[in-house]
Automatic annotation (TrEMBL), chain B:
Residues 1-20 form the signal peptide. This is Gamma-tubulin complex component. GO terms for biological process: cytoplasmic microtubule organization; meiotic cell cycle; microtubule nucleation; mitotic cell cycle; spindle assembly. InterPro entries: GCP (IPR007259), GCP_C (IPR040457), GCP_C_sf (IPR042241), GCP_N (IPR041470). Component of the gamma-tubulin ring complex (gTuRC) which mediates microtubule nucleation. The lineage of its organism: Eukaryota, Viridiplantae, Chlorophyta, core chlorophytes, Trebouxiophyceae. GO terms for molecular function: gamma-tubulin binding; microtubule minus-end binding. The keyword Cytoplasm applies. It is found in: Cytoplasm, Cytoskeleton, Microtubule organizing center. Residues 348-666 form the Gamma tubulin complex component C-terminal domain.
Amino acid sequence: MPRELVTLQVGQCGNQVGAEFWRKLCSEHGINNDGIVEEWAASGATGDRKDVFFYQADDERYIPRACLIDLEPRVINGIQNSDIRNLFNPENVFLSDHGGGAGNNWASGYSQGEGVQEDILDMIDREVGYSDSLEGFTLCHSIAGGTGSGMGSWLLEALNDRFPKKLVQTYSVFPNQSESSDVVVQPYNSLLTLKRLTLNADAVVVLDNTALNRIATERLHIANPTFNQVNSLVSTVMAASTATLRYPGYMNNDLVGLLASLIPVPQCHFLMAGYTPLTLDAAEEGGGTRAVASIVRKTTVLDVMRRLLQPKNLMVSASARAKDYDKSKYISILNIIQGDVDPTQLHQSLMRIRERKLANFIDWGPASIQVALSRKSPFVKSAHRVSGLMLANHTSIRHLFNRTLSQFDKLFKRNAFVDNYKEFPMFHRMVGAKQEANLEEFEDAREVVAALSEEYAAAESSDYIDRADGSSADLATQMVSQLNLASGVGDQRAPVRAG
Amino acid sequence: MHAQLFSELLLALVGNTGEAFERRDRMITLNEAVVDWVPPPERQQLNRLAMLGAHYIALEAFVAALAPQGASVRPTSLYRMALANGISELLDVYRAAVLSVEAHLLHSKVPPPLLSVQQFLLEFEALLPEVADLVSEVHGGDLVGSQLMRALSLRAQSGAPALQSCASRLLWHCRQVLLKQLESWLVHGLLLDGAGEFFIKRRSPDGAAAASGRHRPGAGDAVSPSPLADTRPNGRQGAGTVLDWEPLEWHAGFEVSITDLPPDISLPTAEAVLFIGKAVRVLKQPMSAAASHQALHAHAQILGFSQALHRLQQQEEFSSLHFEHCVESMRAKVSGLLWDLVQHRCDLMGQFEAIRSYFLLGRGDFYQQFLDESQALLAGVPKPNTAEADIALAFQQAALKSTAEHDALFGAGTLRWQPADPAQQQLEADGGLPLWHPARCTTAFVPRYDAWDGLFLECSVEWPLQLLFPPEVMSKYGALWQHMLRLRRAQLALEGAWATLQAFQRCKPTDDSLPRLPAALRAALYQERQEQHHFVSNMTRYLSMDVVESSFAQLRSAVASARDFSAADAAHRLYVDSLVSQAFLDMRQLMSYLEDILRQCKELCSLVQNLAAGSLSVEAAQTALTGIRRTFRLRQRVLYQCMQSGKLSSRAPALRHLITRLNFNGSFAAGAAGGAAA
């Protein structure tokens, strides 16, 4: 029972995405909706590992190592009434007593998390107890709402405290920044969550709703993509990024092996995901012939690798990447290619990409396109011979943070909607008997995210390492000292390097 | 001339001297004391004729000595017996000639002139001395087997027609023996060779020891340390008369003895003969009989060989062209039969895949698990008495917890450990180390890693697949395994270091479980780790994707298109050799740089560990890190220059693959250039 991963799905989005993910995993491993391995999948050695994500109950059923957490019952009830209602361990479902949700308020989610910490940590402890050598946690959530962002943030900190040596990877859905949202405090929630993602997570796979919607409309030709269709994209990425853990090959058979080469600089751990060929089961069912006809079926290794480098296949919005795109650089790339691959083509493809300079890499350290080959599930029929996932550490992601920062600034300048937050202990202090707003948390989070963006910007220049080596006080050192003053404690977790 | 003298002469001609002729020193001459009336010219003629008698005696003695007679001390040379047969045939003719002389004498009223008698025996005057000469050469030089045949074939090229045809005839007799031996070997897989004359021999059990330069006195009396010795009937006596097949026989049981190679059989043909015989031995195994219709088919085919050999036997003149053609067609047939057997009996591709899974680390999750299980063990120093058992336990445990659990072929492999002390190894190489041990592979220089370098994988391949996995191939696999495992260990250690550094990074100020590190040191550690990890992981990626996977695809198609055993065997050997060469294991210089690089990786990892354990001060860590970084960069630069140098142009394609990976964003080359400038 090796290198297990416990999945925590928090909030509405997290649970929807999570449910899709488990559905996908079950179909890939031939597990039916009740957790029983189908007869046709049970025979002999399929060479897959179910034990990373599932454990077996006494009756041989496969139970996902997953905790379903939400503050309002709608989505989880939906799962419990759906065809996969018997899949999850009912003990691993947490719903708040009042069922009122977090009202899209980060602070509410966070403090509700604190309030029920015993229940939740007990649940996680029990889940951890089922594993032999737990490797870490996977969190799926969105960063814009209340529960996924607020309670997710609290959970990240709590995991850090309780399991300091375990890895934490998140699949974080970023809000659609291009259109006005019904959640007006989205920039606040995002920023506060980003601080935790920066400080308390080892790796964050960024899934940008803007890009997901764009992919659904432009690439899959779905006029008004539903949640399910978008979630299906997310779960495809999640399933593909865990392919080497479940269908082991030569290497990348544990999370450390996947992440260690992707994240050379600890702060820069926000990964973009790209996937090709982009088709959805949903698209093929609902999109009709037009969608199917538009899909190109030629999938050689080179095609797949080249398409993965195209911005339109990335699940981070183009607006974030358009700016200064020429200057931005790849810090690392990992391609997980599944299917029927001729290994001799691999080198040729790498050469071709290098010759045509399709990927612009950093020059302050070694970097390359790492390719991991993985088998495809024998139980899922696909029209494509080869499919590929790219996880890339790209400096242009800072524009996404900058956009969050500027939207935050717009609101914060006017102190808009701050009152919603002031009710919660983190955002006020008592002066005598009177409550007074304490917005240091906002400022602190802003510093952290700004420093993160700076770090990515710095990584674009070739003297990045020399800068870090130099003991003279540079920008980063100045900033960290400010930060220390601001937060009151010498916060060593700050994402900047200082002497 | 007296009639009486003639009868004396006739008797003397068949070796019986009377009064008139006397025997002295292997000569028969006219006794001048008795026969004093013969004039000198005639006396000379008589003496010349009488010499035939002397030769006759010698030849007769030769024939008589070789007549079958009870048990002799030494097994009689079959070729000499054949020669004796031939000679006695010749002597028959000679006796007939002498008889005809007698008849002639009796018929003529007056004693005929001596010359007319001489005329009857003219042919023999040329032949007998030559043959007697041959016989004394055979005796004197103790010629047997192929030497004897060579001596004969030399004479068969004589210009004198009588001599030539006589020698050919004698050669024919010897060749009958050869053909019998061939038949026995080719059709039945048995060595019919009491005197050790056949050009195929059982390899003596101490062959391996002899090869390593140690002389073993008195072969056959001491207990040999070789693993082959236990079941093997010893040495030359009764060699191979019993069809007892042992696992290693195919690879080490028999050999072509070049000194015993008869004239007009070339070495390649001899090798083919060796192959056929070995294959026949395999095919005749009861184990092969499971598929009865197949076995019957095989037996019928093999029996067909004897007809072909009989046809050869009937030919008066030996044609090596015919022979070679015959052998080649047999080889093709047998090879096909063997291939049927291998294919029918077992899943060959499955076996190759299992070897790839375990020897070439294809089953990554299993090795991941194994290195996890044994992490604590491998971090320490092996205890000579328990190391092997401990590590083997971890190996088995890992199988239970990974996909190897369902793999039937996992059980074939056993993890072994022996101290990697070079002095000891040298000692053991003489006798103790099995033939398939990686240390036996003298062309591979596997970079050393740590005290656990003595680990090696033992694999028992199911019969009859063993035929395709000879010890020398297994030793190459073993070397590849050691190399890849060491790289993998370095890679995992570096990944572990990353996880530890992450814990440092996220560590809260209130948490005392980890010591404080200055951010600059942390960043430098991250940076150095990244560079090393990039190097090592790309090296492993290169090995697994560009080398193993690509070559394996070729092997798969070669085996799929193979129609006989030899083709599959050749494809497999090519595959293993190309793995070794693309891994650059045969390049000592390159491997020694790699060894230095791996050592730096190990030092960095232990540095991070010591920091985490709090047993190293920050200052000491900084100094150590500077040293590690300097050495690592230096070695990497030298390695790069070495790869770029023209010396390795023969490896250019493989090197290009590796460099593409290492130098994808140009930093590898930039480091080399920058270092050169500095």
